[in-house]
Amino acid sequence: MDSFNSIDLYELNTFSIFLRLILAVILGGIIGLERGANKHQAGLRTHILVCVGATLAMLTNQYIHEFISSNADPGRLGAQVVSGIGFLGAGLILVTSRNKVKGLTTAAGLWASACTGLALGIGFYSAALAAGILVSIVIAVLPKLEVYFYNRSRVLNLYVELDSMNSLKEFLSMVRKTSCRILETNISKSDSVDKGGYSLYLSIRINKRTTHDEAIQYLSTGKGVYLVEELD
Length: 232
Known about the structure:
This protein is α+β, with helices and mostly antiparallel strands.
């Protein structure tokens, strides 16, 4: 018992090394669990590997500083990890043909997982545990709150496909006749599925009495309208 109490968790020893790496697996897994459950590109295993790798980098840096050269920068490898995760996260961010941005939250989760691993690797247990718990809450719980407020937003971003320029003009006229206010439009001919058709990116402000679904359903009844889809 006395030998166990004498173990310093902030110094490099066998117990502290295993503890930090095991905590990296646990916290990285907690952060990546929601991503993996929802079939995102970077899931459970990826977040665990990133967190463990970042922890190992800081452990190695601390080892170099304490046992090889006291003049070595204890944060040098950690800085390289942050830069490396930036490249990894950039590969997860995709912009679809309909201007939808995907993978941004997953990339941010990977970056947070790496930073949690860095804190663990240097022995900053309290910050790592607090960050791991808070990041997992943000990823798993806040989307429901985000959807709640998003559905009550008056601004609606739409992607619309129409069969001709005349239909496009009638559609815009139809929008103007309602109480909706057009904030921004972008017309494209190359994005449309129909070779002779047009695609329209449209931002409108709807009134308080109209829901997003009601607005989309009404606009879908327009002449020559193939598709009306809300963008994230």
